Amino acid sequence: MGNADYVFPSSGDCGHRVAIPPSQPFYKSLKKSLKETFFPDDPVRQFKNQPPSRKFILGLQYFLPILEWAPRYTFQYFKADLIAGITITSLAIPQGISYAKLANLPPILGLYSSFVPPLVYAMMGSSRDLAVGTVAVASLLTASMLGKEVNANEHPTLYLHLAFTATFFAGVLQATLGILRLGFIVDFLSHATIVGFMAGAATVVCLQQLKGILGLEHFTHATDVVSVMRSVFTQTHQWRWESAVLGCCFLFFLMLTRYFSKRRPRFFWISALAPLTSVILGSLLVYFTHAENHGVQVIGHLKKGLNPPSLTHLTFGSQYLTVVMKTGIITGVIALAEGIAVGRSFAMFKNYHIDGNKEMIAFGMMNIAGSCTSCYLTTGPFSRSAVNFNAGCKTAVSNIVMATAVMITLLFLTPLFHYTPLVVLSSIIISAMLGLIDYEAAVHLWQVDKFDFIVCIGAYIGVVFGSVEIGLVIAVSLSILRVLLFVARPRTSALGNIPNSMTYRSFVQYPVANNIPGIFILRVDAPIYFANANYLRERISRWIGEEEEKLKSTGETSLQYIILDMGCVASIDTSGISMLEEVKKNIDRRGLKLALVNPGSEVMKKLDKSKFLEDIGQEWVYLTVAEAVGACNFMLHTCKSAPAREIV
Amino acid sequence: MGNADYVFPSSGDCGHRVAIPPSQPFYKSLKKSLKETFFPDDPVRQFKNQPPSRKFILGLQYFLPILEWAPRYTFQYFKADLIAGITITSLAIPQGISYAKLANLPPILGLYSSFVPPLVYAMMGSSRDLAVGTVAVASLLTASMLGKEVNANEHPTLYLHLAFTATFFAGVLQATLGILRLGFIVDFLSHATIVGFMAGAATVVCLQQLKGILGLEHFTHATDVVSVMRSVFTQTHQWRWESAVLGCCFLFFLMLTRYFSKRRPRFFWISALAPLTSVILGSLLVYFTHAENHGVQVIGHLKKGLNPPSLTHLTFGSQYLTVVMKTGIITGVIALAEGIAVGRSFAMFKNYHIDGNKEMIAFGMMNIAGSCTSCYLTTGPFSRSAVNFNAGCKTAVSNIVMATAVMITLLFLTPLFHYTPLVVLSSIIISAMLGLIDYEAAVHLWQVDKFDFIVCIGAYIGVVFGSVEIGLVIAVSLSILRVLLFVARPRTSALGNIPNSMTYRSFVQYPVANNIPGIFILRVDAPIYFANANYLRERISRWIGEEEEKLKSTGETSLQYIILDMGCVASIDTSGISMLEEVKKNIDRRGLKLALVNPGSEVMKKLDKSKFLEDIGQEWVYLTVAEAVGACNFMLHTCKSAPAREIV
């Protein structure tokens, strides 16, 4: 039965065939796919058709967004930014000191880190709501990763220098990712990963605070729950009740203000001011009761003056280079993920656009500058940015206000923190961390997507029982495994005709769909790649075998045509094409005929190049399932007396 | 403009809506997806509705396929298998000795490995054409990986024991993968990877033979081309011309027979017998000319007798455990990939079915048994199996014949190999390897799929200039990167109406497609996952922005409806749902309306659970693009005087 002997009614009628797209030169298609991969947002669009001088200004504005919005800045904006800036300063000072303690670094570094980096970000950042500062998770990571190699108490200077160097590497990594437009790497930290990871990190950070709350002198360097609990309960005789009582009181106060502000969003400033209030109250209490002599540890002396330069302290040649680079890379990526997620969320609220790659460059430059001026890793923490947003900030000027206020503190007010009890700092950290454990999000994940829930729980358990890195590796591997599994085990479905229509849909989803006698329609829902070629070959052969058996047992018209709906096969590789060739052979051997429906342009091109189209015959490729069914039905009924099985 | 005020003509007519599938209990959907992942071939199908005794027999036959075909074995089959078995023995003996030398193991191991493993495979294997034996690539890998830790010349016994242990681990891994039904891991070695990897390994193996051909005593242990070339050219004074001349003559003879047999497939036996002929000729030549005293190295004494047991030589407690396990895992996977690919190819020729997981168990058991009987890693080499197939084998009995012939050799004929020159073995290896360099396949890859070509070249360069493992890691990473990139950067396309039809297709592929005024139709061609959620959000917003700008500049009807064709979105996760929510908000903010078309059942279920369906309104979900366009057009024309943009 030569194909040429037949007229194809439905395809002849409408005259639209699946055309083979004209082959493009290689460099052109390469350029196109590179552009879509690295420049999906088309950042040079606005540069088109502009005179050179304008292009230069646009270019400057691209890298320094402040040049774009500063000319339009008004006094009204400044009033709003001033209030927001002062509010976040009141949060930044105690948080900065607390997180620096968490990172086992001198407390003053927390203040330094709230001075230089916000200024850099104000120039280069494109978010209007992000408030720059240190974050708990990155601080903890620095402590646990560097602490494995160098003891911060025994070699404080070496540890400090390694922390600067790690910050430098983090900055270089962030800027490089931005310049190379590899921002999408951050996308591999899925929402579920971040929920689980943050909750795990918050749990770990809270556990670490038991040291401060219980006034312990010695404490484990490990972060997992087993080591911490062992460390806490092996030295019950060292617990200080004075410290514990003070800590619990402040924690209760902080939680109360948080709860109140959450119920009445207008009074956001109550919870924003609570940390500074706690610090002041705690310091006064210690000052008047001399509690520092009764087991309540205090911050002690803080050096006056602005950030000393630290460029010469960056050490690249030491034996610790590997661990420093590893720390820089992991903390850099985590900080990036948090900062970009926060920036994006607020930009969405206010309906403006943030360029992820530009933000990365800003974060990178801010950390490189920070590492040279005695700062450690900074990003855009959620808590501080949320306060900034609630306080009504308009532009990044609120960061400049904060930096100025911190500068004044550094120059004149550091002695005031001498009597601040460490236990208050622990309370501040715990109250901030409890807000990061988002169990409602975990419940939502469970309800909507079980696999995402597993990823989330994997990250949590990994962080809490292993370490922060283990949790991260588990979550990212599970996420990638999901993508690979999707491709390795694509869904295939048999299609039927929806009554009174030309539409063909899956029998499983639409039980009303009708079978077409003698024709079996199959749809593949994924690209055909090496990873699924073997599976698809076996699965298609099983579909056909089962259908033939079923028809035989019910005594219906035997199968004569297999229609493969390729509409959703977005891509194919050479393993996939071999698979199709084998499927074709297999179908021929059973005495059936194969027809393809609606292959995309890329698939069409490859099928043509690999001669598969010649093999199957281009007249067996249809635009729609309905057309293919029409043509097959026509052939079925024309030669009813002699079934295709025998003539082929 | 409340949605409830409107009647939806086209959807009301046909009465088919996209239904939300009834929610299944969790364990049921878990069971279903686990089954589809691990048991896509449904191996228990034949066990259904059978009495227990029959089930027992079927179960035995499942693990020992010989029980299934042995009762039907005839004398006709045996005649064919006998001829095939003798033919492959003549290839197996010289190849076995050569490859054992390649692995730096005693030559006799090559014979041992052609005795026990084929017997095990004949019981358990399901391929009728596979001939079991050692392979060059795995031998080379064993030499290079174990050789890094232990020098085979200085500590031959330790090296031998480590090789047995590595074989044991390889067997355990193979059997475990089969039992856990993780066979699809092998699928991640794509066709392109294997082409590049095999060519690279063949190049490296040929380079290693320069030692034998040039009669060198000392040789580098590295496998990369730079080290080998340096090793060869720094000792030009050690080159032995006698050896080189002999080697070139035999190589020429072997290539000639190969060429002849390729041209005349009927005379396949000429090339099959050529290696044994070379060995006999070479040995006679050395015996009569006493060339062993003139720089031609010979095999020397081979111990008579069958495989000695080696169970007690397996060493699990030594300091080399890590490297042994690594060697076992890598060689095990490579051997598996080759064996299964070979088995599948011949099964396709003869149109019978091979169960990959069952084959893995067979390979695993054969190597575990081998490691206890002084064999090293075996699999189904392509060359030997092809000869087996050409010689007309019918069942695995040809393996039993080969094992018997090798047994006879071991018992009585080993002294005959005393004078076999090593250079002949080198020629045999080179001539076998040259057949593995499939440059035509590489050209085909370049023509059809550039990325596959890059994977192939990456594997080749990695193997030749780095090491076998580096090449493998490069190729697998590139392949996985491709899958991840496909998901991270899915194709989106704007659709238009194909004239005179209800069909909507991409403008890029079908330039005849027509725009619908006021409506923009967009299709997403991949699952919506965390990895692409951010990209898709930006890309969709850019599509809409560009379309609005275009319409503004041409002065056409402004945009009012966005139709998102979800037919190809096979799956969605929580990040994807958040993305859709944001897209919806963005579209609302622009004063437009969003309609979804044809979401699959899984997507529908998740959209419902996450309340997105409530948010968008289920009446905005259509079965086909045509229906959605019909409904939008109806609304557009009903309220033409008051554009939707203002009423919403």
UniProtKB/TrEMBL annotation, chains A, B:
Main localization of the protein described in the UniProt heading? membrane
Species annotation? Nelumbo nucifera (Sacred lotus)
Any one GO biological process: transmembrane transport
Give an example GO molecular function. secondary active sulfate transmembrane transporter activity
The record, for SUPFAM superfamilies, names: SpoIIaa-like
The UniProt keywords, alphabetically, are: Membrane, Transmembrane, Transmembrane helix, Transport
Transmembrane region positions?
Answer: 130-147, 159-180, 192-210, 239-260, 267-288, 329-349, 395-413, 420-437, 457-481
Q: Which PANTHER family match?
A: SULFATE TRANSPORTER
| Membrane-protein topology | Multi-pass membrane protein
Positions of the STAS domain: 509-632
Q: Gene behind this chain?
A: LOC104598652
What protein is this chain from?
A: Sulfate transporter 3.1-like
Name of one Pfam family that matches: STAS
Compartment list: Membrane
Keyword Translocase included in the entry's annotation: no
> What is the top-level taxon of the source organism?
Eukaryota
Q: Name one GO cellular component term.
A: plasma membrane
